[in-house]
Amino acid sequence: MKILVLNGPNINFLGIREPEIYGGNTYNDLVQIVTDHALTRKVKVEFYQSNHEGDLVDAIQKAYYDKVDGIVFNPAAYTHTSIAILDALKAVSIPTVEVHISDVSAREDFRSISYVRQVAVKTICGKGFAGYTEAIDFLIERMKEKK
Ligand code: DQA
Q1: What is the longest distance spanned by two Cα atoms in the chain?
Q2: What is the pTM assigned to this prediction?
Q3: Of 18, 71, 106, 138, whose CB count within 10 A is highest?
Q4: Which residues pair with 5 in a beta bridge?
């Protein structure tokens, strides 16, 4: 089983950006935590982060050709704005878990809108980095059920 862990704009700035909201750990820490977890669960994980909407669309399309089984996706600010990303997810039909480090429902009103949620098989918010490992576990269990 192969999972793509996809992150949108400013996630590379974890540890620097608003630590009171996102914590003090870095993007590299996130990659390490998720890699370690994936090893224990015996699944392959690939990581991609971009600050650019079109790059994220390209990464979703590439996941189709690479036969990725599931996507763990924090689209960051593009969650609230991007129809292009929604359309890409609809196009590839790869089960996607939407993850947010912070609890977006408890923040500004504009963060309560999510285009990605329309296609996500699950949304996890406000659990910090643990949201990513929970998303991996969810995708593994879902795959087992579908077999
Ligand atoms: C975020 C929440 C978004 O509203 C924000 O734009 C982000 C990060 C989160 O992980 O909590 O960049 O997706």
Answers
A1: 42
A2: 0.97
A3: 71
A4: 47, 72
Q: Is the CB of 125 under 6 A from ligand 1?
A: no
Q: How many residues does the chain have?
A: 147
Please tell me the predicted confidence (pLDDT) of residue 146: 84
Please give the C-alpha separations between residue 13 and each of 19, 32, 46, in angstroms, as whole numbers.
10, 16, 19
pLDDT number for residue 63: 98
Answer whether 127 contacts ligand 1 (Cβ < 6 A). Answer: no
- Phi and psi at residue 67, in whole multiples of 5°? 55, 45
Residues marked as catalytic: 22, 100
**Residues lower than pLDDT 70 in the chain:** none
Centroid of ligand 1 to alpha carbon of 39 (angstroms) = 26
Instruction: Report d(CA 45, CA 109) in Å as an integer.
Output: 33
In eight-state DSSP terms, residue 78 is G
User: Which tokens hold the place of 101?
Assistant: 């480090």
User: Given ligand 1 and candidates 12, 104, 124, which is best to mutate, with the most ligand atoms within 8 Å of its CB?
Assistant: 104
Nearest to 79 by CA among 123, 45, 27: 123
Of 6, 3, 7, nearest in space to 76 by CA: 7
